[in-house]
Design a protein that fits this description.
Family: Belongs to the anaerobic coproporphyrinogen-III oxidase family.
Number of helices: 15
Keywords: 4Fe-4S, Cytoplasm, Iron, Iron-sulfur, Metal-binding, Oxidoreductase, Porphyrin biosynthesis, S-adenosyl-L-methionine
GO cellular component, one term: cytoplasm
Number of strands: 19
Pfam families: HemN_C, Radical_SAM
CATH topology of the largest domain: pyruvate-formate lyase- activating enzyme
Shape: globular
Strand order of the largest sheet: 9-10-8-7-6-5-4-1-13
CATH superfamily of the largest domain: tm_1862 like domain
Structural class: alpha/beta
Organism: Phenylobacterium parvum
Distance between the termini: 13 Å
CATH class of the largest domain: Alpha Beta
């Protein structure tokens, strides 16, 4: 990815476009969720789901053994296992409530994703218990994809063996950066040798796809230690790499105030770190997927991107074709044809709802026809860096006049060489990929940059 264009130098690009923009893992974004979507409305949506269409499940585990200061997830560090054990009991309660709301129908599940937090905070016995409860409430597809986000620092061979015996097929290891100074600056010590052990256990267990999460823009991070981290990980040959920019939002995540802001790299340094990692990955044969993922050519992400079926959801870029995602656990988000729903973020409120045998939904948003229209434009831009506006406008029964204002706003991006039009197709240029979130925001009727509720675009 180039950080410059023939018309706009890097410094000018940063000054002009390093505002705030959503990451567009949904449209409308979670900022638009409200309490107007109630548990009763969610129950109606669940009842309307067809029996023969496969769904995906997301299970949120809101616990960690340590609190990483950069983290933007809904999680907390716990010293003992008691809160985790209690969570498992309530998670199975939620599953019963969900199954009841579905009319006790056992829908077919094609994908299960454990996220967090740290899913490997669950003991091997608890992993078996949760998966057993899930298999009792749903029918697992023969090609079920079972994925988990894992903290290698506390991952054990026993945990991996149990998960693999129960179907784990894809794993994501949080690495971020291997430099000791960077790790100390974000309270996340871990060793490369143990990460290598984790990869070996996963491979031996039959896991066919391993992702590693890396970050750029962390305190004390440099181009040199970014490149050194990638060099070490290349010896393990993961199928996928996620390369996320650190989002410093201490007004939303108070623990980020523990980070020394003076040690944070500037926007230009952040781009240098991304470029260095991207070039190194390209030299190893990895293909860039969307704005921040990389995958080996034989990986499903590459195939999906080449075939125009790459998707984007709350877990990032995905090949999951399911139109329905059901979320379980505090703060988890679900996606249905009618709209999005989110569980209560606080465990206390989540448990209270389940104690009353209700669905723990706290908020959400009902999709309008315009939301679906704009959401598809944004998803295609985020996934493919191009979209046929004429085809989508016709398919949704809309008029070209409906996006005249948006096309007018895109003229500034075109003048800077960041987008171009080819007939009815809007294409993001190589340089424009840096600001694709800002380009997408042009089509977002809800976005107000001045509200400052999102991370910086660069």
């Amino acid at each position: 990815m180039s950080a410059t264009t023939a018309r706009l130098g890097r410094d000018a690009l940063i000054e002009k476009y390093d505002g705030r923009a959503p990451r567009y893992t949904s449209y409308p974004t979670a900022v638009q969720f409200s309490d107007e979507v109630t548990p009763e409305i969610y129950a109606d949506w669940l009842q309307a789901l067809p029996d023969d269409e496969a769904v995906s499940l997301y299970i949120h585990v809101p616990f960690c053994s340590r609190l990483c200061w950069y983290c933007g997830c809904n999680t907390r560090a716990v010293n003992g296992h008691g809160p985790v054990a209690a969570y498992v009991v309530y998670l199975e309660k939620e599953l019963l409530s969900l199954h009841k709301a579905l009319g006790r129908r056992r829908l077919r599940v094609s994908s299960i994703h454990f996220g967090g937090g740290t899913p490997n905070m669950l003991t091997p016995v608890e992993v078996r218990s949760v998966l057993g409860a899930l298999s009792g409430a749903f029918r697992f597809a023969g090609s079920l994809e079972l994925a988990a986000e894992l903290d290698p620092e506390i991952l054990t061979k026993e945990w991996v063996t149990t998960a693999c015996v129960n179907g784990l097929s894809r794993a994501s290891l949080g690495v971020q950066n291997l430099d000791r100074e960077v790790q100390a600056a974000v309270n996340r010590p871990e060793s490369f040798d143990h990460i290598a052990d984790c990869v070996r256990w996963l491979r031996d267990g039959g896991v066919s796809s391993i992702n590693m999460d890396l970050m750029y823009g962390l305190p004390r991070q440099t181009v040199a230690n970014t490149r050194a981290t990638v060099d070490q990980l290349m010896t393990l040959r993961p199928e996928r790499i996620s390369l996320f920019g650190y989002a410093h939002v201490p007004w939303m995540k108070s623990h980020q105030k523990l980070i020394d802001e003076n040690a944070l790299p500037g926007a230009s340094e952040r781009l240098d770190q991304f470029d260095a990692a991207a070039r190194r990955l390209a030299s190893e044969g990895y293909v860039q997927i969307g704005m921040d993922h990389f995958a080996l050519p034989e990986d499903d992400l590459c195939k999906a991107q080449a075939e125009g079926r790459l998707r984007r959801n709350f877990q990032g870029y995905t090949t999951d074709p399911a139109q329905v995602l059901l979320g379980l656990g505090p703060s988890s988000i679900g996606s249905l044809p009618q709209g999005f729903v989110q569980n209560a973020s606080q465990e206390i409120a989540w448990r209270k709802a389940l104690d009353h045998e209700g669905l723990p939904v706290a908020r959400g948003v009902r999709l309008t026809a315009d939301d679906r229209f704009r959401g598809e434009i944004i998803e295609r831009l985020m996934c493919d860096f191009e979209v046929d506006l004429g085809e989508i406008t016709t398919r949704y029964g809309r008029s070209p006049r409906d996006i005249v204002h948006e096309l007018s706003r895109l003229e500034a991006f075109a003048a800077d060489g960041l987008v171009r039009s080819e007939g009815s197709r809007l294409k993001v240029t190589e340089a424009g990929r840096l600001v694709v979130r800002s380009i997408c925001a042009v089509f977002d009727v809800y976005f107000r940059e001045a509200e400052g509720r999102h991370s910086r675009a660069l």
